[in-house]
Design goal:
Strand order of the largest sheet: 1-4
Strand content: under 5%
Helix content: over 70%
CATH class: Mainly Alpha
Protein name: Putative ABC transporter permease protein
GO molecular function, one term: transmembrane transporter activity
Structural class: mainly alpha
CATH topology: ABC transporter involved in vitamin B12 uptake, BtuC
InterPro entries: ABC_transp_permease (IPR001851)
Family: Belongs to the binding-protein-dependent transport system permease family. AraH/RbsC subfamily.
CATH architecture: Orthogonal Bundle
Largest sheet: 2 strands, antiparallel
Number of domains: 1
Pfam families: BPD_transp_2
Shape: globular
Order of helices and strands: HHHHHHEHEEHHHHEHHH
Number of strands: 4
Number of helices: 14
Length: 321
Protein backbone atom coordinates (compact mmCIF):
# COMPACT_ATOMS: atom_id res chain seq x y z
CA UNK A 1 0.00 0.00 0.00
CA UNK A 2 1.36 3.45 -0.89
CA UNK A 3 2.25 6.11 1.65
CA UNK A 4 -0.33 8.47 0.12
CA UNK A 5 -3.12 5.91 0.54
CA UNK A 6 -2.13 5.28 4.17
CA UNK A 7 -2.03 9.01 4.92
CA UNK A 8 -5.47 9.54 3.38
CA UNK A 9 -6.98 6.58 5.27
CA UNK A 10 -5.59 7.72 8.63
CA UNK A 11 -7.02 11.18 8.15
CA UNK A 12 -10.39 9.74 7.12
CA UNK A 13 -10.49 7.55 10.24
CA UNK A 14 -9.58 10.53 12.44
CA UNK A 15 -12.28 12.67 10.80
CA UNK A 16 -14.85 9.96 11.55
CA UNK A 17 -13.67 9.66 15.18
CA UNK A 18 -13.80 13.44 15.65
CA UNK A 19 -17.32 13.46 14.21
CA UNK A 20 -18.45 10.64 16.53
CA UNK A 21 -16.93 12.44 19.52
CA UNK A 22 -18.65 15.72 18.68
CA UNK A 23 -22.03 14.01 18.22
CA UNK A 24 -21.67 11.99 21.45
CA UNK A 25 -20.79 14.98 23.63
CA UNK A 26 -23.40 17.12 21.89
CA UNK A 27 -26.04 14.71 23.19
CA UNK A 28 -24.49 14.11 26.62
CA UNK A 29 -23.49 17.68 27.55
CA UNK A 30 -24.84 19.97 24.82
CA UNK A 31 -24.85 23.22 26.80
CA UNK A 32 -21.39 22.87 28.30
CA UNK A 33 -19.56 21.18 25.43
CA UNK A 34 -20.46 23.92 22.95
CA UNK A 35 -19.70 26.74 25.37
CA UNK A 36 -16.98 29.29 24.69
CA UNK A 37 -15.32 28.38 27.99
CA UNK A 38 -14.89 24.76 26.89
CA UNK A 39 -13.27 25.71 23.59
CA UNK A 40 -11.02 28.19 25.40
CA UNK A 41 -9.98 25.37 27.72
CA UNK A 42 -9.16 23.11 24.76
CA UNK A 43 -7.25 25.95 23.08
CA UNK A 44 -5.19 26.57 26.22
CA UNK A 45 -4.23 22.92 26.73
CA UNK A 46 -3.44 21.88 23.16
CA UNK A 47 -0.36 24.05 22.39
CA UNK A 48 1.97 22.56 25.03
CA UNK A 49 0.96 18.97 24.31
CA UNK A 50 1.00 19.66 20.57
CA UNK A 51 4.57 20.97 20.54
CA UNK A 52 5.73 18.05 22.70
CA UNK A 53 3.96 15.60 20.37
CA UNK A 54 5.83 17.12 17.41
CA UNK A 55 9.09 16.77 19.37
CA UNK A 56 8.27 13.08 19.82
CA UNK A 57 7.07 12.55 16.26
CA UNK A 58 10.16 13.91 14.49
CA UNK A 59 12.30 11.28 16.23
CA UNK A 60 9.76 8.51 15.59
CA UNK A 61 9.92 9.28 11.85
CA UNK A 62 13.54 8.07 11.90
CA UNK A 63 12.52 4.86 13.66
CA UNK A 64 13.64 6.21 17.04
CA UNK A 65 11.95 7.75 20.05
CA UNK A 66 12.68 10.52 22.56
CA UNK A 67 11.61 9.61 26.08
CA UNK A 68 13.44 12.65 27.44
CA UNK A 69 11.12 15.34 26.03
CA UNK A 70 9.45 16.11 29.38
CA UNK A 71 12.72 16.18 31.27
CA UNK A 72 14.21 18.36 28.52
CA UNK A 73 11.26 20.75 28.67
CA UNK A 74 11.58 21.09 32.44
CA UNK A 75 15.38 21.47 32.33
CA UNK A 76 15.16 24.23 29.74
CA UNK A 77 12.26 25.87 31.61
CA UNK A 78 14.20 25.89 34.89
CA UNK A 79 17.23 27.44 33.20
CA UNK A 80 15.10 30.08 31.47
CA UNK A 81 13.23 30.71 34.74
CA UNK A 82 16.49 31.27 36.63
CA UNK A 83 17.71 33.77 34.01
CA UNK A 84 14.33 35.54 33.90
CA UNK A 85 14.21 36.00 37.68
CA UNK A 86 17.86 37.07 38.10
CA UNK A 87 18.11 39.74 35.42
CA UNK A 88 16.14 43.03 35.21
CA UNK A 89 13.16 42.81 32.82
CA UNK A 90 13.79 44.15 29.35
CA UNK A 91 14.63 43.22 25.77
CA UNK A 92 18.13 42.06 26.68
CA UNK A 93 16.72 39.86 29.46
CA UNK A 94 14.23 38.26 27.07
CA UNK A 95 17.03 37.52 24.60
CA UNK A 96 19.16 36.00 27.37
CA UNK A 97 16.24 33.81 28.45
CA UNK A 98 15.80 32.43 24.94
CA UNK A 99 19.54 31.97 24.39
CA UNK A 100 19.86 30.08 27.68
CA UNK A 101 16.94 27.81 26.79
CA UNK A 102 18.17 27.06 23.27
CA UNK A 103 21.74 26.49 24.50
CA UNK A 104 20.47 23.91 27.00
CA UNK A 105 18.36 22.27 24.28
CA UNK A 106 21.35 22.14 21.94
CA UNK A 107 23.47 20.41 24.60
CA UNK A 108 20.74 17.88 25.47
CA UNK A 109 19.87 17.17 21.84
CA UNK A 110 23.55 16.75 21.01
CA UNK A 111 23.98 14.23 23.84
CA UNK A 112 20.98 12.23 22.64
CA UNK A 113 22.11 12.43 19.02
CA UNK A 114 25.70 11.36 19.72
CA UNK A 115 24.60 8.42 21.84
CA UNK A 116 22.19 7.21 19.17
CA UNK A 117 24.00 8.10 15.93
CA UNK A 118 27.67 7.66 16.90
CA UNK A 119 27.80 5.32 19.91
CA UNK A 120 24.83 3.40 18.40
CA UNK A 121 22.90 3.06 21.65
CA UNK A 122 19.26 2.09 21.18
CA UNK A 123 17.12 5.29 21.07
CA UNK A 124 14.84 4.04 23.84
CA UNK A 125 17.81 3.32 26.15
CA UNK A 126 19.73 6.49 25.26
CA UNK A 127 16.79 8.83 25.82
CA UNK A 128 15.70 6.92 28.93
CA UNK A 129 19.17 7.45 30.36
CA UNK A 130 19.16 11.16 29.48
CA UNK A 131 15.65 11.48 30.94
CA UNK A 132 16.78 9.94 34.24
CA UNK A 133 19.91 12.09 34.33
CA UNK A 134 17.96 15.30 33.64
CA UNK A 135 15.27 14.47 36.19
CA UNK A 136 17.93 14.06 38.85
CA UNK A 137 19.73 17.27 37.86
CA UNK A 138 16.44 19.19 37.71
CA UNK A 139 15.48 18.14 41.23
CA UNK A 140 18.93 18.81 42.68
CA UNK A 141 19.20 22.27 41.11
CA UNK A 142 15.65 23.36 41.98
CA UNK A 143 15.67 21.45 45.33
CA UNK A 144 12.27 20.07 44.37
CA UNK A 145 10.61 23.48 44.53
CA UNK A 146 9.35 25.76 41.78
CA UNK A 147 10.71 29.02 40.41
CA UNK A 148 7.95 31.64 40.19
CA UNK A 149 7.17 35.33 39.61
CA UNK A 150 8.24 35.78 36.02
CA UNK A 151 8.48 39.13 34.19
CA UNK A 152 5.52 40.39 32.18
CA UNK A 153 7.12 39.53 28.83
CA UNK A 154 6.81 35.81 29.72
CA UNK A 155 3.32 36.00 31.24
CA UNK A 156 2.06 38.01 28.24
CA UNK A 157 2.42 34.97 26.00
CA UNK A 158 -0.42 33.16 27.77
CA UNK A 159 -2.58 36.19 28.57
CA UNK A 160 -2.56 37.87 25.14
CA UNK A 161 -4.44 37.13 21.95
CA UNK A 162 -4.50 38.20 18.31
CA UNK A 163 -7.91 38.72 16.68
CA UNK A 164 -9.43 36.73 19.53
CA UNK A 165 -7.08 33.76 19.02
CA UNK A 166 -4.91 32.99 22.09
CA UNK A 167 -1.22 33.61 21.46
CA UNK A 168 -0.17 30.08 22.61
CA UNK A 169 -2.45 28.62 19.94
CA UNK A 170 -0.87 30.90 17.33
CA UNK A 171 2.57 29.79 18.50
CA UNK A 172 1.49 26.16 18.08
CA UNK A 173 0.15 26.83 14.56
CA UNK A 174 3.43 28.55 13.68
CA UNK A 175 5.39 25.52 14.94
CA UNK A 176 3.10 23.20 12.94
CA UNK A 177 3.70 25.28 9.79
CA UNK A 178 7.47 25.28 10.28
CA UNK A 179 7.53 21.53 10.92
CA UNK A 180 5.35 20.92 7.85
CA UNK A 181 7.76 22.93 5.71
CA UNK A 182 10.78 21.10 7.16
CA UNK A 183 9.31 17.63 6.71
CA UNK A 184 7.46 18.07 3.43
CA UNK A 185 9.44 20.68 1.52
CA UNK A 186 13.12 20.31 2.42
CA UNK A 187 15.91 17.85 1.65
CA UNK A 188 16.42 17.42 5.39
CA UNK A 189 12.80 16.30 5.77
CA UNK A 190 13.06 13.82 2.91
CA UNK A 191 16.23 12.44 4.48
CA UNK A 192 14.37 11.88 7.76
CA UNK A 193 11.75 9.79 5.97
CA UNK A 194 14.40 7.84 4.05
CA UNK A 195 16.31 6.98 7.23
CA UNK A 196 13.07 5.86 8.88
CA UNK A 197 12.25 3.65 5.90
CA UNK A 198 15.71 2.05 5.65
CA UNK A 199 18.69 3.55 7.44
CA UNK A 200 21.20 1.13 5.91
CA UNK A 201 20.05 1.83 2.36
CA UNK A 202 20.15 5.58 3.09
CA UNK A 203 23.76 5.26 4.25
CA UNK A 204 24.75 3.32 1.12
CA UNK A 205 23.08 5.95 -1.07
CA UNK A 206 25.45 8.61 0.26
CA UNK A 207 23.26 10.18 2.97
CA UNK A 208 25.06 11.22 6.15
CA UNK A 209 22.74 9.35 8.50
CA UNK A 210 24.76 10.21 11.60
CA UNK A 211 24.59 13.95 10.98
CA UNK A 212 20.87 13.77 10.18
CA UNK A 213 20.06 11.80 13.34
CA UNK A 214 22.02 14.25 15.50
CA UNK A 215 20.11 17.19 14.02
CA UNK A 216 16.80 15.36 14.46
CA UNK A 217 17.37 15.03 18.21
CA UNK A 218 18.57 18.63 18.44
CA UNK A 219 15.37 19.73 16.65
CA UNK A 220 13.32 17.63 19.08
CA UNK A 221 15.01 19.36 22.04
CA UNK A 222 14.49 22.82 20.51
CA UNK A 223 10.76 22.10 20.29
CA UNK A 224 10.87 21.24 24.01
CA UNK A 225 12.16 24.77 24.70
CA UNK A 226 9.05 26.22 23.06
CA UNK A 227 6.83 23.89 25.11
CA UNK A 228 8.71 24.92 28.25
CA UNK A 229 8.21 28.61 27.52
CA UNK A 230 4.47 28.04 26.99
CA UNK A 231 4.31 26.09 30.25
CA UNK A 232 6.13 28.87 32.13
CA UNK A 233 3.75 31.49 30.79
CA UNK A 234 0.66 29.42 31.59
CA UNK A 235 1.60 28.42 35.15
CA UNK A 236 3.85 31.39 36.07
CA UNK A 237 6.30 28.82 37.42
CA UNK A 238 8.85 26.18 36.43
CA UNK A 239 9.33 22.89 38.26
CA UNK A 240 11.14 19.58 37.73
CA UNK A 241 7.93 17.53 37.79
CA UNK A 242 5.66 19.46 35.42
CA UNK A 243 4.04 17.68 32.48
CA UNK A 244 4.94 14.11 33.45
CA UNK A 245 1.60 12.80 32.14
CA UNK A 246 2.31 14.31 28.70
CA UNK A 247 4.85 11.64 27.74
CA UNK A 248 2.29 8.89 27.09
CA UNK A 249 -0.15 11.28 25.42
CA UNK A 250 2.53 12.69 23.10
CA UNK A 251 3.35 9.16 21.91
CA UNK A 252 -0.36 8.40 21.54
CA UNK A 253 -0.96 11.61 19.54
CA UNK A 254 1.93 10.80 17.22
CA UNK A 255 0.90 7.18 16.61
CA UNK A 256 -2.82 7.97 16.39
CA UNK A 257 -1.99 10.75 13.92
CA UNK A 258 -0.39 8.30 11.51
CA UNK A 259 3.27 8.41 12.53
CA UNK A 260 4.72 4.94 12.02
CA UNK A 261 6.54 3.91 15.23
CA UNK A 262 9.03 2.01 13.04
CA UNK A 263 9.72 5.19 11.06
CA UNK A 264 9.34 6.10 7.41
CA UNK A 265 5.98 7.79 7.12
CA UNK A 266 3.46 10.04 8.81
CA UNK A 267 2.74 13.73 8.54
CA UNK A 268 1.98 16.77 10.62
CA UNK A 269 -1.65 17.27 9.55
CA UNK A 270 -2.71 13.85 10.84
CA UNK A 271 -1.08 14.63 14.18
CA UNK A 272 -2.99 17.90 14.51
CA UNK A 273 -6.24 16.00 13.91
CA UNK A 274 -5.24 13.44 16.56
CA UNK A 275 -4.49 16.23 19.04
CA UNK A 276 -7.89 17.80 18.42
CA UNK A 277 -9.56 14.42 19.01
CA UNK A 278 -7.62 13.76 22.23
CA UNK A 279 -8.26 17.24 23.63
CA UNK A 280 -11.98 17.02 22.84
CA UNK A 281 -12.17 13.63 24.55
CA UNK A 282 -10.26 14.83 27.61
CA UNK A 283 -12.35 17.98 27.92
CA UNK A 284 -15.64 16.11 27.49
CA UNK A 285 -14.71 13.41 30.00
CA UNK A 286 -13.58 16.06 32.47
CA UNK A 287 -16.93 17.84 32.16
CA UNK A 288 -18.70 14.52 32.75
CA UNK A 289 -16.70 14.14 35.97
CA UNK A 290 -14.61 11.18 34.84
CA UNK A 291 -11.47 10.74 36.95
CA UNK A 292 -8.19 11.86 35.37
CA UNK A 293 -6.76 8.42 36.27
CA UNK A 294 -9.49 6.73 34.23
CA UNK A 295 -8.75 9.13 31.37
CA UNK A 296 -5.06 8.16 31.54
CA UNK A 297 -6.06 4.49 31.46
CA UNK A 298 -8.17 5.27 28.38
CA UNK A 299 -5.12 6.79 26.65
CA UNK A 300 -3.15 3.63 27.39
CA UNK A 301 -5.98 1.50 26.06
CA UNK A 302 -6.20 3.61 22.90
CA UNK A 303 -2.47 3.22 22.30
CA UNK A 304 -2.63 -0.55 22.78
CA UNK A 305 -5.68 -0.80 20.53
CA UNK A 306 -3.96 1.18 17.79
CA UNK A 307 -0.84 -0.98 18.04
CA UNK A 308 -3.04 -4.09 17.83
CA UNK A 309 -4.87 -2.80 14.76
CA UNK A 310 -1.55 -1.98 13.14
CA UNK A 311 -0.28 -5.44 14.02
CA UNK A 312 -3.13 -7.14 12.15
CA UNK A 313 -2.49 -4.78 9.18
CA UNK A 314 -5.85 -3.03 9.14
CA UNK A 315 -5.96 -1.14 5.81
CA UNK A 316 -4.58 2.35 6.29
CA UNK A 317 -2.77 1.53 9.52
CA UNK A 318 -0.23 -1.05 8.42
CA UNK A 319 3.26 -0.58 7.03
CA UNK A 320 3.57 0.67 3.49
CA UNK A 321 4.41 -2.05 0.99
Amino acid sequence: MSNRKIKDNVEIYLSVLIGITVVAFSFLIPGVFWSAANFQSIASQMPILGVLALAMAVTMLTGGINLSIIATMNACALIMAWVATHYPPGASSAILVLLAGFAAALAIGLMNGLLIAVVRVSPILATLGIMTLLNGINIVISRGSSITHFPDYILAINSSSVLGIPTPLLVFFAVVLVMWIILEKTAFGRTIYLIGSNEQASLYSGISTRKTLIWVYILSSVLCVIAGLLMMSKLNSAKASYGESYLLVSILAAVLGGINPDGGFGRVFGMVMALILLQMLESGLNILGVSSYITMALWGGLLLAFIFLKGINLPGLGRAQ
